[in-house]
Input
Amino acid sequence: MYTCSFCGEELEEGKGIMFVKNNGEIFYFCSNKCFSNHGMRNPAKVKWTQRFKQEKEIKMKTLQHRK
Ligand SMILES: [Zn+2]
Output
């Protein structure tokens, strides 16, 4: 099982885009949308990604600890 390198969603077998960089690094993308956003935007700053949600949760937790 692979997860999308951009949004963090799980990929179904045989679906999505596999992208190999010149240095041999492999990325998987669930859609063209994620593929085109990759490298241009920080997934932690894009609202529809899993990473955005994770970052938000981490921030909420840190805020709660400060109280
Ligand atoms: Zn994706």
